[in-house]
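ok so for the tutorial part 2 we go from a plain amino acid sequence to predicted structure tokens. step 1 is just haveing the sequence, like this:
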Amino acid sequence: MMIKLYDFKSSPNCQRVKVVLAEKNLAYDTVPIDLRKQEQKTPEYLKLNPYGKVPVLIDDSTVLYESLIINEYLNEKYPDPPLMPKDPAGKAKARILIDYGMAHFDSAYQKLRMELMKDLKEQSQPVIDGAKSDLKKLLQRFEDEIGERPYLMGDFSLVDADLIPRFTRLEGFGVLPDPSLPRLGKYMERMKARPSVKAIL
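step 2 — the prediction. this is what the tokens look like for a chain of 201 residues:
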């Protein structure tokens, strides 16, 4: 039985799952869901994911949604290569970093995203500058965390896979690279050289 991924190509939530599928070398079929046509809100799709969002992953009879949960599942079901530390403390730390990069970042990230989506003449430069400044402060934690290591937990892990779509968007928003975050700048180059990440860029 093939893994099936209900996917919208530019969705960061779909992209983080595709990074893990690629890192695990898992074959899968893609079912395109066009968010612009509201295909994620059809009754058939809502049976798979009552939240009406992408992605949905089907593996045999298992139907999953929420990208971070899908990635945990893929890592447990297909343990090779492992993308989480073995010890409970290491796992907990990885989950804290994921939560920090997703939940804790969200307010400044969404504020900047919404502002940049407006017409140029309607954008507020103070709002943009404020959100960028907040995001750079938040990114300092990752700058410190990575130290001299190649990835956020040392080895490539779910932390990197889960957060890379957000980091590449922060590049698009002009937040990264930044002279105050030199290690993250190098980290981004390393990440973008990985085949699994190249495939989503």
